[in-house]
Design a protein that fits this description.
Elements lengths: L2 H24 L13 E14 L2 E15 L3 E14 L2 E15 L6 E12 L4 E17 L3 E16 L8 E17 L3 E11 L7 E14 L2 E12 L4 E15 L1
Antiparallel strand pairs: 1-2, 1-12, 2-3, 3-4, 4-5, 5-6, 6-7, 7-8, 8-9, 9-10, 10-11, 11-12
Length: about 260
């Protein structure tokens, strides 16, 4: 196929995509959320980037699956995230994280209790295995149907096994302070901006800290599909490693 043929195929595909998105959008954007009869949320996001040039190609795939339960006195959230990427055939990302957290009386009070358990393995951050478990208190600084700002703090016990290097031993145990800032803003029931940020220094050494930051922008096409842009930054100072990911894709979600 010549270059004109390729261009015609690309233009036809773009026209089909535009028509599809137009039909979905005209069907009416509807934003769902938890209420007295809706207590569960299942969500899956598929985002990624791909780049091909004369010098080579690279790609990153990011998959996230979460399940939330929201009741009057308690909420339970589980999330699983896997990021895989290669650059010119060389592996540079193979990171998996799983988290389970619960909140007690968050819907009823300004101050509430929380608990958290996480597991992480990360090629890019040089972490073989990392386990965290702990809890603390949280504060509903802003809580309205369209805006949310939550600040929480507590202690986490951590056990980790790192990639062996001349400077770093393999296994470590420490207690960290975990400060979290979480926000969510809904505009016209169509645009959703949300994010979650962690600052986790060790109580025995402030130079041993973890930074996790995630920001998302979603445009709701209908009650189960959104277009999503995400910016994620992670740093694990003990291994002197960090990563920054900017992805584009879609999020599928179902409230029930």
């Amino acid at each position: 196929m010549n270059n004109n043929g390729y261009m015609n195929c690309i233009q036809f595909a773009m026209i089909r995509m535009a028509c599809l998105l137009g039909c979905i959008t005209m069907g009416g954007a509807a934003f769902s959320q938890f209420n007295d009869s809706t207590h569960y949320l299942l969500s899956y996001s598929a985002t990624g980037t791909f780049n091909r040039a004369t010098e080579g190609k690279s790609y990153v795939l990011n998959n996230a699956l979460s399940f939330d339960i929201n009741k009057k006195n308690m909420s339970l959230n589980s999330s699983n995230n896997w990021v895989y990427g290669e650059n010119n055939g060389q592996l540079n990302l193979n990171d998996f994280s799983s988290a389970l957290n619960f909140d007690i009386n968050r819907a009823l009070r300004t101050w509430y209790w929380w608990g958290l358990a996480t597991y992480t393995t990360s090629y890019s951050l040089k972490i073989n295995n990392q386990f965290q478990v702990g809890g603390g208190i949280g504060h509903n600084t802003i809580r309205t149907p369209n805006a949310e700002l939550v600040i929480s703090d507590g202690l986490l016990f951590e056990s980790s096994n790192l990639y062996q290097t001349p400077e770093i031993a393999g296994s470590h145990v420490t207690v960290r302070n975990s400060l979290r800032v979480k926000y969510r803003w809904v505009i016209a029931n169509v645009v959703v901006i949300d994010g979650m940020h962690f600052w986790q220094p060790s109580l025995t050494s402030l130079s041993n800290y973890i930074v996790r930051s995630a920001n998302n922008l979603s445009i709701t096409l209908n009650k189960w599909l959104s277009l999503t842009t995400s910016v994620t930054y992670n740093r694990y100072n003990q291994t002197n490693r960090d990563n920054l990911l900017i992805n584009f894709g879609a999020t599928f979600q179902r409230y029930f």
